[in-house]
Amino acid sequence: MARILMVNDEVDLLRLCQETLQDSGHDVEISTSGREAIARAQAVKPDMVIVDWIIPDMDGHSLLANLKAIPGLEDVPALAISALQDGAAFAARAGADDFLQKPFDADELVDAVAQVLSRT
Amino acid sequence: MSEPPAISPFAAPGQYADTRRMLADTIDRRADDIERRWLERVQKDIVATGREIPPTELRDGIGEYLARIARAIRGGGSIAGGGSAAWSDVAREHAVTRVRLGFDIGQLVHEFILLRRILFDVTQEESLTANALQSEWLADLIEAAIATAVKSYVESRDAADRRIRSEHIGFLTHELRNPLTTATMAATRLRRKAEIPEAHKDTLDMLDRGLNRVRSMIDGILLTERLEAREMECRPVDITFGHLMAEATRAAEFEAKNKGIAFTTRYDAAMEIHVDPTLALSALQNVIDNAVKFTDRGHVHVVGDDGPSEVLVHVYDNCDGLAPEALNTIFEPFKRAHSGKAGTGLGLAIARRAVEAQGGRIGADSSVGHGCHFWLAFPKAKH
Lengths: 120, 383
Description:
The complex is a heterodimer of chains A (120) and B (383).
Chain A: E1 3-7, H1 11-23, E2 27-31, H2 34-44, E3 48-52, E4 54-55, E5 58-59, H3 60-68, E6 78-82, H4 87-93, E7 98-101, H5 106-119
Parallel strand pairs in A: 1-2, 1-3, 3-6, 6-7
Antiparallel strand pairs in A: 4-5
Chain B: H1 17-29, H2 31-48, H3 55-59, H4 62-75, H5 84-101, H6 105-125, H7 132-192, H8 198-228, E1 237-240, H9 241-259, E2 262-266, E3 272-275, H10 277-294, E4 299-306, E5 310-316, H11 324-329, H12 347-356, E6 361-367, E7 371-379
C-alpha cells in the first residue's frame, strides 16, 4: 500500500478522500495549499500525489513541476483531479499520469488510484 | 445582411476625370486634417455620453479608409467593387474595435455620418462641392462603408456574446461540480458503512439518484453548449449497430424492469453505421430513457430498420401521448411537454443536436392517449 499526498482546498472533500483511501489501506497525507503541499512532500516523500487542478495559491501545472523538482520525487506518480471540462488535456500536458473528472464517487477514486499505482 | 452592392457612380473612364482627380487629391492632401476633425467630433459625442476612450483606439482604421476612398475616386472604381476584400479587412478590424469599446450600432453608423459631414466641409472649403455628382459619389462610398461595417459589427458582436456565454457556463458548471463531488463522496462513504439499517438503504438510493441527476444535468448543459458553439468535434467511425444499442438500452432496460413495464428490442446487431459513437450513444440514450421515463403502464419497443442509406431506429412507447403543438417544440432546449416528471428539458435537444451534428435526422409523432413514436436516422457505413 502506498503513501499518498493529496492536495485540495476543500477540506470536507479532502477528509472524505483521506478516509476512503485509508480504508483501502493507503497512508494519506493532506494539504490545503500548494505551498503547504511542497513542504509536506519534502518531509514525507510520498509514493504518489493527487492534485486538484485549481487551488488558491498555485495552478496544477506549477504545483506538479514543483513537486517533481524535489529530490527523490522526480518520477512520483500523479493523479490530477478537476471539475474543468478540459481538465484531462491540461493534466496530460503537465505530465500527470492520469486524470479523474469531478464529480467522482469513492469507488471511482479508489480505482483511479489503484490504476496509477499499478502502472508505475 | 449581404455584401454591399458595387457602387460605380463613374459612368465611363475618362468622364469627369478632372473632377475625380481634384477630389481625390484633396482627400489625400487633407487626410490628416480630416482625421483630426473627425476624431474631435467623435470624442465630443462620446464624452457627451460619459465614456472615455483613448484616441489611438478611436482612430483605428480611419486613415486607411480615407486613403482607400481617394484611391477609389481616382481610379474611377468604387470601394465595394474595386478591392472590396481589402476594404472589408479595414471594416472588420474597425468593427472588432468598436465591439470591444462597447459601441452600439447607432454609434458605429454615427461615426461614418460624422466622417461624411467633415468630408463635405473640406470639399466645400476647397470650393469643390458645386458639383452635385461629387456629393453623390461620396455619399455612395460612405454608405457602402456603413453597410460593410454594420455587417462586420454584427458578426463580431455575436461572436463576442457567444464567447462570454460560453465562459459563463464553463465557470458555473465548474463551480457546481466541486460541491457535487463532496456530496457524492459523502454518499458513497455512508453506503460503505456496514451498520446501515435496511430501511435507510432506500433513502441512500434516493440520495444517489438525486446526485446522479445533477451530474447528468451538468454534463447535458456542457454538451448542449458545445454543440451550439459547434465546438463539438464529430469523429465518425464505422461501428456495429448491436455494440451501440447494447450500451444505449442498458439503463432503460433496468429502469423498465424496476417500473414493471415491458421493454423489447428487434434489430440486426451486425448492421454497420457511420457515426461518432459518443454523440450517437448520447442521442439514443436520451430518446430511449425518455420513453421508459414517461411510460407508466405498457410497453417500450425499440426497432432498428436497415434502410438503403440509413439505419432507422424507431422507439415506440405507451406514454400519455403528445399534442400536435407540443411535437413542434419538444426538440427545443428547456421545452418539456410532460409535467410531473423530473428532467432538465435538455435531453431531446441534446439528442437532436447530436444526431444532426453527424448528418443524421430525428423526429417524432404521437397519438394522444396511446403513446409516442420517436425515430432517429443514422448514416450507414460505406463499404
